[in-house]
């Protein structure tokens, strides 16, 4: 099938949709291919948490996209933060009242905001890319697992996250397992443990750190809590769907032995979660991945597809920043000089990507694999006590 738009964006995550919105505003034609079968599939089938958007990256991207006022109406400002140890002892408690620096937004709301800002006809759902092929005339063909191929793209942007199918065209590196595995689910307001969660976390984030393991509660926009459990686990330990389907099954078969001796309130939060758990083994790119990136005409990458790390609080911000930069270069060079646009973008992005990956490795050791709250706070240079 011959394509109409010159630019294909693979992936409707924060990076892909930010780029789509910026091209839309600039009236540059594009098409987005997304593997999810519909706009609501992820909301219905996957637990997803909250993201804090930073002023110079994530928020700046929304300003650039003309979406900041709508973001402000969805975002939560001054979200309190409590950090405790495995016994529930409070080490840090920030009220953050009046803090406007790093507002939080539910991941699903950010996606909804970006999706609503581009015409529905620009997003092709249920299009799972298998590979791309560069053809002799300099154009690129996209091949899907479940749809007819499309040809004639002048630029394909890989915004397809951790397991990008576009990445292999420009770099040989594959993500490496970080040693950390997260499981996440929810506590809804009707859950009997909800009042205890509300007492501990309030309208904020409540983070418990033990040795190489964590239990996090994040208050979402609808008042429910997103619960994340992190621990060092072998790469091969991927529980079956039947185990992830219930909190008690996951607790009894995988988690219990790792959280022996923890404060019961903390472990009860995990054992009482509603619904099924999402399994997130955390992967990261190696530090030498970016220097091995060869510029390839007609193909580039944004977001996790290029600088995947463990969660550092920067991931979504960096992803949106990449797309702002790429869009600016495409707009300034024009649709007939996409080669110069991608070269300029990649040159500016490479050093940022290296720093991002380095920070992720630092966080792996000083936060996720630290020997508890005190060691983690000392490494972060964070002071304890009330604020
Ligand atoms: C447990 C966890 C917690 C996190 N917490 C935070 C946080 O608090 N703050 C923060 O800033 N970041 C956080 N991150 C990181 C953040 O989620 C990512 O950095 C960010 O989502 C990257 O955006 P992206 O658009 O590059 O990729 P993604 O968000 O991964 O989006 C990729 C899109 O591409 C689609 N796709 C994938 N493969 C294909 C294919 N073959 N064909 C078509 N479409 C495809 C996917 O369905 C998806 O829609 C966290 C990550 C994890 C794992």
TrEMBL record:
Entry keyword set: FAD, Flavoprotein, Monooxygenase, Oxidoreductase
Superkingdom of origin organism: Eukaryota
UniProt xrefs under PANTHER family: FAD DEPENDENT OXIDOREDUCTASE DOMAIN-CONTAINING PROTEIN (PTHR46972:SF1), MONOOXYGENASE ASQM-RELATED (PTHR46972)
Organism: Penicillium cataractarum
Domain FAD-binding: 5-170, 297-357
InterPro entries: FAD-bd, FAD/NAD-bd_sf
GO molecular function, one term: monooxygenase activity
SUPFAM superfamilies: FAD/NAD(P)-binding domain
Pfam families in alphabetical order: FAD_binding_3
Protein name: FAD-binding domain-containing protein
